Amino acid sequence: MDNSIALVTGANTGIGKEIARQLVAAGLTVYAAARDAGRGESAVRELGRGTRPLLLDVTDAGSIAAAASQVPALDILVNNAGISLDDKTPDKETIDSFRWVYETNVFGVVEVTNAFLPALRQSEHPRIVNISSSTGSLTLSAERAAAGRAGGGFAAYRSSKSALNALTIFYAHALAADGFKVNALAPGLRRTGLNAVAAASGGDPAEAAAGAVYLALLPDDGPTGQFLSWDGTPVPW
User: What is the DSSP letter of 197?
Assistant: First the structure.
């Protein structure tokens, strides 16, 4: 993957920054995309040589188009940018909150992916990694309910990740003939600013990032359309 080019959305903080750091360490050129120019520039200064700042708000069509025009060639797209709200069940959440979360976690992924497909199609080894969550697993949620355990919280966030998982499968099927590998990663609970639960956790973002980098650098005989944990083990849909 020498001389390969990657783009990581939400790369100015948390898992995204660690993914960018590890890809640079692997010898890649990395576009560190951020919706705030100042924070993006700051992250690039920290990450150092091999990174390039890219202003990109995944909820803004104009921003996405402008960013895509600046990236003529691309090998790896990591859809990392994501948001979460408070721990509310669907009966207590507003439709506006669902829309807000889906704009970033679902619709943003579709629009960003489609905008950068022309650049990715020029690659001999195109890869797309979607940062999902095990909390989006319908199987695990159903098992929890069957066991009589409380659940249904973070409904907007978790359902958005279920939708992202479905999109991962659909993109994998649609792009398979062009040599794409499209996979979803469950990074585990990490110490990030995603929400209060994540902020209070002790999980190392770098450990999760290593799982994303593994999927980004898959060989041509690697899997596609899979949902994998940060340690490489399968996560049930």
Answer: H
Distances in whole angstroms, Cα of residue 142 to Cα of each of 9, 65, 138: 31, 39, 6
Catalytic residues: 157, 161
Using only the alpha carbons of the chain, give its radius of gyration: 17
Q: How far apart, in whole angstroms, are the C-alpha atoms of residue 216 and residue 182?
A: 9
2's CB contacts (< 8 A; 6+ apart) are 27
Asked if 195 and 129 count as a contact pair (C-beta separation under 8 A), the reply is no
Kindly state the DSSP code that residue 149 receives in the 8-state scheme: -
Q: Report the run of H or E that residue 79 belongs to, with start and end.
A: strand 76-79
150: pLDDT strictly greater than 70: no
Contact 205, 18 (CB under 8 A): yes
Is the pTM value of this prediction over 0.90?
yes
Model confidence over 154-175: pLDDT tens digits? 899 999 999 999 999 999 999 9
Reading the block at residue 173, the tokens are: 């099927």
d(CA 198, CA 186): 14
In angstroms, how far is CA 38 from the centroid of its own chain?
21
